[in-house]
Amino acid sequence: MSRMNGDIFAFAGAVLWMNVAPAFAGDKAAVIYRCDDGKGVTASFLTATNEALITTDGQSFRLPQGLSGSGARYTDGTVLFWIKGNDAQLKAPGRSTNCHVQ
């Protein structure tokens, strides 16, 4: 296969990827975390509003981005999701756990 054909396939893959992107313009695809308590967390990042949509244990939370010295911190004052690299900390009523990107 020629380099040009390889470039065409790479472009086609990128177009396919864009078609499965999140519904909100400017959003990042969901990231799936596995937590130390055995449960999962799915996080989608809404860049237009600087929020994270966190889904875990049958509940969803829309968390605004807060101030952080390092990483990215999202909280509504009750639920906290703090990302540092491939790890995150989740604190919610009755639950506190560390999570890791799958």
Structural class, judged by helices and strands? alpha+beta
Uncertain regions spanning at least 5 consecutive residues = 3-25
Number of strands: 8
Rg over CA atoms: 17 Å
What's the SSE pattern?
Answer: HEEEEEEEE
CATH C-level class: Mainly Beta
The separation of the N and C termini measures 34 Å
The best one-word shape is globular
Q: Assess the beta-strand content as a share of residues.
A: over 45%
Largest beta sheet: what is the strand line-up?
1-2-3-4-5-6-7-8
Major sheet? 8 strands, antiparallel, barrel
Mean pLDDT: 81
Task: Supply the number of structural domains.
Answer: 1
At CATH's second level, what is the architecture? Beta Barrel
User: Helix count, per DSSP?
Assistant: 1
Q: What is the H level of CATH, i.e. the homologous superfamily?
A: C-type lysozyme inhibitor
Which secondary structure elements does this structure contain, and how are they paired or packed?
Layout: H1 3-19, E1 28-35, E2 40-46, E3 51-56, E4 59-66, E5 72-75, E6 80-84, E7 87-92, E8 95-101
Antiparallel strand pairs: 1-2, 1-8, 2-3, 3-4, 4-5, 5-6, 6-7, 7-8
